[in-house]
Design brief:
Order of helices and strands: EEEEEEEEEE
Number of strands: 10
Strand content: over 45%
Strand order of the largest sheet: 1-2-3-10-5-8
Structural class: mainly beta
Radius of gyration: 13 Å
Length: about 110
Amino acid sequence: MFCFEKEISPQPAGEGCTRRILAVNQSQMLVEVRFEKGAVGADHTHPHQQITYVLEGRFEARCAGQKAILGPGDTVTVPAGALHGMTALEQGVLLDIFTPIREDFLK
């Protein structure tokens, strides 16, 4: 029911990126992703719906053939199956919400 940040170890999520799974239930997952400046979340697809909220930093977001610069408080909604990715223009932190949960992150 409760998750405490200090008890969740960061996991590698690509060069210059780490992620921590903050919460999981039967249908949703909340994941914090930390980026070093210049780190790239490579363009990819997955069958999950995703909402990404920028907590800190600035990012170039790519989604379904469109691009935008996002900063703190901005979001991107990623439809299931859409090609998407991020590049950190400065050090930053994202909060990703997935439904259904990313079973691949739990392995």
